[in-house]
Design a protein that fits this description.
elongated; 37% helix; mainly alpha; two-stranded antiparallel ribbon; 2 strands
Length: 236
């Protein structure tokens, strides 16, 4: 049972020590404290402080009924015990796993229903498995993939549905391949292309429909091509 102080200025959650299995060892040894370092209180901060002081007890709480207690305990579990939580029903617990599991085992979380889990996986998983997330349903997952894939493997992502993903691709694609993105449907993507494409090829963007793309292109194009846009409708 949880007690809350009746003092109007102190609403700290407190658990009753008489109901706690650690009252005869950890409490007496000064390794827990009601209202401050307590695994039984419904307080993430108190639970975190408890496991920081008593990491050896994390294993006892890996199957606890309170999701936050399981999630915090997972930060202190051994790798062997972590694997037992791969199918935990709470995404916060699985997010801890995504941070802590060896990268070689993250393939087991590639199809996790939680986007934050998959984002962490995309950020950590070995490059040999990363391309398996290139068609993930969430654009942020795909963006992490685009940031990490070797430039030579980015061609399949040039036509991604999301603008931010394509911008990331345009920022990393080999310069000699950027010509294939000069007709991208989004001006922001084409502007990135204009910033990176070889000067002798940027002239194809001098007639772009977006003035920002043309401005970027004219700042990099050889002079013989610049003269052709002296009558551009935009004063910039």
């Amino acid at each position: 049972m949880i007690e809350v102080s009746k003092d109007d200025e102190d609403l700290t959650p407190r658990a009753r020590c008489r109901d706690c299995p650690h009252r005869l060892d950890r409490l007496q040894a000064g390794r827990c404290e009601p209202g401050d370092t307590c695994v039984r209180a419904m307080s993430g901060r108190q639970i975190e402080r408890f496991f920081r002081e008593n990491p050896d007890l994390a294993e006892d709480y890996r199957g606890d009924g309170f999701w936050e207690r399981r999630a915090i305990a997972a930060r202190y579990l051994s790798q062997r015990r972590l694997r037992e939580l791969l199918h935990d029903p709470d995404e916060v617990v699985r997010r801890v796993l995504a941070y802590r599991l060896p990268e070689t085992e993250l393939v087991k979380l590639m199809d996790d229903p939680d986007r934050e889990v998959r984002i962490t996986v995309a950020d950590r998983i070995g490059l040999e498995h990363l391309e398996g997330l290139a068609e993930d349903s969430d654009y942020l997952v795909r963006q992490y993939v685009a940031r990490r894939l070797s430039p030579g493997r980015l061609f399949r992502m040039m036509l991604d549905d999301d603008r931010e993903v394509r911008k990331t691709v345009a920022q990393r694609l080999p310069v000699e391949s950027l010509m294939m993105m000069t007709r991208d449907g989004d001006a922001d993507v084409r502007r990135v292309v204009a910033e990176r494409i070889a000067p002798e090829e940027v002239s194809v963007l001098l007639s772009d429909e977006d003035w920002r793309v043309r401005l970027t292109a004219v700042s990099r194009a050889p002079l013989e091509f610049v003269r052709g846009v002296l009558e551009d409708e935009d004063p910039d």
